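for the writeup, i need someone to sanity check this before i put it in the appendix. the sequnce is what the collaborator sent (i think, or maybe the updated version? ugh). structure was predicted straight from it, no edits. if anything looks off just tell me and ill rerun, i have time this weekend
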Amino acid sequence: MAATVPAPSLSFSRPTFAKLSPHPYLLTNLTDPENPCRTNGRAPHEARPVHIHTSSLAHANGSALVRTGDTTVVCGVRAEILPVTNIPQYRPREPSYGEEDNDDSADVDELKDYDLLVPNIELATGCAPQFLPGVPPTTLAQTLSTRIYSLLHSCKVVDPKGLRVWYTPPKETREEGAMEVDEAQEEEEEEEERKPELKAYWVLYIDLLFVSFDGNPFDAAWTAVMAALRDTKLPQARWDPDREAVVCSRSEEAKMALDVRGLPVACTATVFLEKEHGEDSGSSAERKSRHWILLDPDRLEESLCKETVTVVVDCSGEETKVKSIEKHGGTVIGRELMRGFIGVAEGRWQEVKEASK
């Protein structure tokens, strides 16, 4: 008797289905009545666990390694001295050394005008298939650097007081037999002569390298920046009038931690529509079509979605402060959904805080 040959299968395996038709595959998973989930197994509002390791780089003033799923980024902070004589647009400051300065607007102008915070992002070759060797910096890397730069200043993360290097001239000794003057006038002249002078600033070069890239790069990069800044320690610096230069102490005990304000955390989500791009995707059709808010999207989900929202919140005080809201493309997310998403961002802030301990 001849052996029966099994009929060929008319269906694809799950990995093949995902590669050939990613949108229908993700839609099938989300509409599963028994277990609605995403392709990666997460629920729509479930983010990937975040892991933070600080002091990862031995030759940086501060560093951090952040991993969320398969997205891994390393951040190193390098501090260098910038004399005020090398700043073309420098404007002398009036406050004396150690004096309290509550003018936040002046602080922001100080950091921006003198470029005291310099972020730079590099997407390493091999971190994702689309990043090839020997090519110029991608648009994504430049965009991420600009967003990090803007958020550093808008959130006022770094206190510029800790970046200033002051010098107070020594008190001059008067020769014997000098003409006596009024004591009040003498004290006033001495105070005027010994007025502290701002000689230099610390410039922080914030370099980020993506070792592995699987979506949602901004959240990972910002988390790494905050962790590295909070890990940064600056050497004790003073002005040497004999050398006419700033000298730094080599003592590890004399290093001072950088003053970082608060803990802003970024939370990003994308909108997945039931209909694919170009399939009656007008604004009215988008609102009527079924959609899902996917928190912390991976690389596949980002390629299938055209609407993205990022909220930066800081819950370190008595109340939640919304530091930034960015939205790109689409018309699904409105005021009501945005209010609810802020609550999701608060939960993400708590996760990042626990991972930072």
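Residues 96-100, 104-108, 176-181 have pLDDT under 50 and may be disordered. Residues 25-47+265-356 form one domain.
thx in advance!!
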